[in-house]
Each structure stands twice: as C-alpha cells, then as structure tokens.
Design brief:
Blueprint lengths: L2 E5 L2 E3 L5 E8 L8 E6 L6 E6 L5 E3 L7 E6 L4 E6 L8 E7 L11 E2 L3 E5 L2
Parallel strand pairs: 2-11
Antiparallel strand pairs: 1-3, 3-8, 4-5, 4-9, 5-6, 7-8, 9-10, 9-11
Length: about 120
C-alpha cells in the first residue's frame, strides 16, 4: 500500500522560511515525479511545483524564485523549501505522487497534508 506522509508545517512570520518533507512508502519512489499542491481556506487546490524522476523542477508563478523542490531517492523523500513566505502562502500543503510537469493532472496518491500559516 502506497503511503505519503508530510511534515514540517507550522506558524511562521512573513519573510520567514519553512521546509516541508514528504516520505513515501510502498512503491519504487525513484521512478515517479513528485508534486506539491496547496489549498487555502475557501479556495481550490493549487499546484505549487513538480520534480521529475530525473530531478528537473517546475513551479507555479506565484512561488517561483521563493520555493525549491528537491528529492532524496535513497530516503524516499521529497522536500519543499519555502523562503520569503507571505501571508497568502497560508494553506494546507499536500504532496502527490505522479503529477504532470505542469501540475494540471495528478497521481492517485496523496498525503494527509500539513498546515502552513504565515502570520505576524
């Protein structure tokens, strides 16, 4: 059974940083693209970015230059480094296995989400 578990969320002040982690079990992690999405209160789910199995990355315009996705295949982990955080980044963040490079389609498996709140 495939499982994705996110961690690392929390409360941070505007301009601060957080690093989210997602650990995957139950499949061959290294062959899948991995993505991060978020859902803010009252809004639809939004794609944040994708990292391919080869390590290429693609980001939404709203986070480009501030967020960085990386992966550690031996540890079955994908990371989302978030810098220069803004209040509008407040959301529940989810990792997903197997999204398209532009995030317009997503894979079957999701994590449970981790809350990120940016507030002073």
């Amino acid at each position: 059974q495939v499982q994705l578990v996110e961690s690392g969320g929390g409360l941070v002040q505007p301009g601060g940083s957080l690093r989210l982690s997602c650990v995957v079990s139950g499949n061959i992690f290294s062959i899948y693209a991995m993505g991060w999405y978020r859902r803010a209160p009252g809004k639809q789910r939004e794609w944040v970015g994708t990292i391919t199995s080869g390590g290429s990355t693609n980001y939404a315009d709203s986070v480009k230059g501030r967020f960085t996705i990386s992966r550690d295949n031996p540890k079955n982990k994908v990371y989302l480094q978030m810098n220069s955080l803004k209040p509008e980044d407040t959301a529940v963040y989810y990792c997903n296995e197997g999204p398209s490079p532009d995030g317009s389609s997503w894979g079957r498996y999701w994590g449970q989400g981790t809350q990120v709140t940016v507030s002073s």
